[in-house]
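Revision sheet: structure tokens.
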Amino acid sequence: MLSRGDGGLEKHVVEMANTLLKTCRVSVLADPRYRERLDPAINFVALDARKGRLSFTLASQLKRILVDLKPDIIHAHAGKAASIMALLKPFYKESKWVVTRHNTTNPSAFYLRRFDACIAVSHKVAESEPSINWHVVENGTQPLQPSEPLTPLQQPAIVTIGRLVKIKGLDFVLDAWKNLDAHLYIIGDGPERAALEQQVQNEGLKNIHFVGYTEKVADYLCQAKLMLMPSFKEGAPYAMVEALLASVPVVATDVGNAKALLPSHAIIEKGSAEAIENSVKQLLQKPEDFQASFADSFSYARENLSLDKMVENTVGIYKSLL
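Predicted:
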């Protein structure tokens, strides 16, 4: 993994590696900032992820590491790691090579075709490159555990979770709040926070709570009546999985695996404050019926979106190559 972020990709790799350790010999090659998040029993090899994908120094370092480790499986995650590792494959043929695509754009088919197996984190990600023979392994995680005692939220509480960037569509959520009598908790931080706070002030909106970054997401999620995900683009968002595992309804645009996981009425138009407003009003008018309409989604999440299930499916692909 050659990223330096704190999003779904990094969560995926860290949780996958820590769980794989139960049955596999695991080495993780990544930026030093992830060392503390990994089990000490994992063989961690530090890389400078600030170096570009065309860095000869980084490629040479990776080649030497592979010769030393002699792994059975080499698993690259996301575009940068995949592009470098794909170019190294002709020089190291002893292993089987696997890549996971976490979004609908990277890595490109040019690099994907060089791997022995290609994993997509959702069917929508797989559909974005139909020329590839994909294995779909949906993101799974462990249910979040809230603190005890909880600090109660003002109700009805509705949450958004994620970085505050344009692509998340949160300005449309704020537009919808002009006509809604509910409390909105915006969890996360990012470059759009100042603009969103200014929008709240300019429009005189009430009941908007900017939480910022917090490690206590579970405390908010477990008290929420609904999670909104009005994004313009997602891969297979972990926030949606966490919400469903906590039996919290999700209203989302058609991004990632939303259509596969949610009832049809929970899929809304992108960039539409009216659609967001209407969905929240449905919840507020008939909360029990709204909750009940997600019963199949909650059941599917419990059966298929656990961390153990994700690892089991990934190991199955490894075994098929050996």
